[in-house]
Design brief:
The chain is an alpha+beta fold. It contains 8 helices and 12 strands.
């Protein structure tokens, strides 16, 4: 099932709930349902069959119309939609933000820091993957992206605590789960001590992102940063 089909079914389910099928059995004709949805009667009928097949509704066809009641799996889908909308509407923090920038070769600091055992252990624990030894460096291109990047610094983060060894101290690192290039799961990392400002993203992943996404210096890449986890 495609994402579009899933949304169509969820829309149909929402309309059935509005017609009273959420907590009781409602008598609904396909003709009336089609008018409410702006679909053809044939399309409305097909969606009802699909909802019944995936156990979102219970339906009994009568000469006067279908007796329909939303079943527990359908109720759970509506509750999930409600929860997602509530988060979006009631918080100042969006579920995710997408930034775009240009890949460039950094100073090599990423590999040095990630190789530190105290950092690596915490990153695996917090993010659920062992990071490839190096970061993908992305230079943000627009004022909007840079401003949004600065805003992210105020959002709650997964924190990797600093430590001290015999040579020096290492500072706190904040992590935000991310999806790079629309394909690879990784994380944005921001260090309290860094040579870069908010115009640069340092991204880690369990794989070499340059190879995985076929990226070279100068290529543009989108990074979706998840702010609620």
């Amino acid at each position: 099932m495609t994402e579009k089909q899933q949304w169509q079914q969820l829309y149909m389910l929402l309309k059935l709930a509005e017609m009273g099928a959420y907590n009781r059995t409602a008598k609904i004709s396909t003709e009336y349902l089609a008018k409410k949805l702006g679909f053809s009667q044939q399309t409305a009928s097909r969606y009802l069959i699909e909802l019944e097949r995936c156990s979102w509704i219970q339906r009994k066809v009568t000469p006067d119309g279908s007796l329909i009641k939303i079943k527990e799996p359908g109720i759970q889908e509506l509750r999930r939609l409600y929860s997602n909308l509530k988060v979006i509407m009631e918080t100042n923090i969006p579920p995710s933000v997408t930034l775009e920038g240009t890949v460039f070769t950094g100073l090599g600091e990423g590999a040095y820091y990630i190789s530190k055992t105290d950092y690596k252990k915490q990153l695996i624990d917090k993010l659920g993957f062992e990071p490839y030894p190096g970061t993908l460096n992305v230079k943000l291109n627009s004022d909007y992206d840079i401003k949004t990047s600065k805003d992210i610094e105020a959002y709650p983060a997964l924190e990797v605590m600093g430590f001290q060894n015999e040579d020096r101290s290492f500072g706190l690192v904040k992590c935000y789960p991310a999806i790079i290039g629309g394909k690879v799961k990784g994380a944005l990392v921001t260090a309290t001590r860094s040579h870069y400002d908010a115009s640069v993203l340092e991204i880690i992943a369990p794989v070499c992102l340059r190879k995985q996404l076929n990226l070279k210096d100068g290529n543009k890449v989108k990074v979706e940063i998840l702010t609620q986890f």
